[in-house]
Every structure is written in C-alpha cells, then in structure tokens.
C-alpha cells in the first residue's frame, strides 16, 4: 500500500530549520527498509501559482489556493504493508523534521 505523507509547517510557529541532516538520515533508512518511493520539499507558498480553468478562460492567481497559517512544506510517498507501519514511520518523521505530518492512503 502506498501512502502520501504530507509535511505541514506553521507560519506562526515554524519548525526548526536545522533538520536536514536528520531528515537525510531518515530518508536513507526509509530506502534501506524498502519504504521509500519519493520525497521532496516545496518552495515557499509565496512562489505558488493557482490555475482555475473551469470557466471560459483559465485564471492564474499568485499565492496558495488558501490563505492559512499552516501550509504544505513537503511530501513523502511511502510503501508500507499497512496503516500501522505508515503511522509508526510518520510518528518518527514528525519528530525528525519538527513538523506536523498527515498520512493518507492512495486509493
């Protein structure tokens, strides 16, 4: 089963910025244990562009689709045998990257 693991940061209470060495070590472990599929950090929300092409013409807007103090800072995609394993890894990930983590299964 694959899981989307979202890293949630908070503009009013951001996570530590010195976590990259620990995150890299965690990622290496995920790879060694066969859980790693993909991961990546995201640029600041100020660099986002939203496209809405549901009308007659596409509309392009600067910034995130929702103004919020919390925002998506990065993602992992993991392979895990079940939700319990994914949640265990996510608990570690939250501590390692000093941010909230959301876990959702791919359908």
TrEMBL record:
Pfam families: YCII (PF03795). InterPro entries: Dimeric_a/b-barrel (IPR011008), YCII (IPR005545). Residues 1-93 form the YCII-related domain. Belongs to the YciI family. PANTHER family: BLL7171 PROTEIN, BLL7171 PROTEIN-RELATED. This is YCII-related domain-containing protein. The lineage of its organism: Bacteria, Bacillati, Actinomycetota, Actinomycetes, Pseudonocardiales.
